[in-house]
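Job type: complex structure
Entries:
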Amino acid sequence: MASATPENADKTAPKLRADARRNRDKLIEVAATAFAENGVETSLEDIARKAGVGIGTLYRHFPTREHLVEVVYQRELQILADAAEELALSEAADVALEQWMRRFVNYMATKRGMASSLKIIASSNSAMFAEGFGRIRSSFDKLLTAAQDQNLIRKDIGQADLMHAMSSIYSIPDTPEWRESANRLIGLLMDGMRVKR
Amino acid sequence: MASATPENADKTAPKLRADARRNRDKLIEVAATAFAENGVETSLEDIARKAGVGIGTLYRHFPTREHLVEVVYQRELQILADAAEELALSEAADVALEQWMRRFVNYMATKRGMASSLKIIASSNSAMFAEGFGRIRSSFDKLLTAAQDQNLIRKDIGQADLMHAMSSIYSIPDTPEWRESANRLIGLLMDGMRVKR
DNA sequence: AGTTTAAACGGAGGCGCCTCCGAATTGGAG
DNA sequence: CTCCAATTCGGAGGCGCCTCCGTTTAAACT
């Protein structure tokens, strides 16, 4: 999963030197892959090595493992939000909504294993958690409203209903077939929500 | 997590070799001191060194840090129970009760810092926690009943009342004066419980 | 006693965490 | 363009965790 634009000049960036910024981005990118593949317990030295920097550099940018996990988590949320914008432009509104929900499920799937780690972070920094939550809600809202404006989706459904449905999908036991099952449920959900004509 | 009885009866040890038993005991003793002085995070290698055994020996006897903590915890509970027996023989019944309660507070004081660690253990092996709890209750009961039989303590007090009182002492915030405060409360408690004559 | 054997020992070695500080790089000033 | 100070790099080194396996030793047997 590659980010479309590594030039994300946002955040409270206290003017980082060019090399510092490069290394930081590379570390985040490598960490995202590593966490997804091997879980949050992945060796930090391994991540530094794969990013082509020294372990010291990793620790300067991210004092603790949790810091790194948090940044990766935020970045992926951002990518998810960006995907919503793109889909809205390139697909019919109802299709955009459906595809984005599938991507969302995909995202949740990768986070399944690290739920406990995220819980620790959430409790120590609930502001971050709230922010991420807000972003997701906003994406849901935009996509849903657009589809409803075009009369493709029933109007008696709200963003909160959709999120509720998604969270119940998450609560399905963590079996190997979880992903399939979740995707099937999204199909059902969409069928029910589409305006019949 | 309802663990019925997966336990093998290894509490009645499968006859340990003499040197093994000696090393095991020494490790527990050293660990008890180390945990009390430096908390449960103490280096296990340090404990092995101070006990005069190799690190391998420590790990053979106690596969994880938690195993060791648990055994130490149980041993100290046993010592506390033994103290109740001794005091009952060497002191007047009401004095025995009071002194034992002070020892109990002392014990709780040393466990204050490692509350979170013990919580983890308790949740993974609640049987052990229950057993320790039972031993304490039994000690309370013996000492209290004896004092009441000799008409030194009011008879409208039960063992459950005493334990309740002690647990409320534990809930006092963990300040440096906690110990004094706790001991003062025990004084009050005893005064109130003694038969006036 | 001597012999046998399974249990127990113990530490080397591999790995990961984290810190520290001399070396290298950047980017602004002249 | 050059120079310099500030910033960043990076890996060596110290420590702790845990495993593995050759060596030692208790104790059962003859």
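Summary: Confidence is low (pLDDT under 50) at residues 1-11 of chain B. The CA atoms of residues 12 and 21 of chain B lie 13 Å apart.
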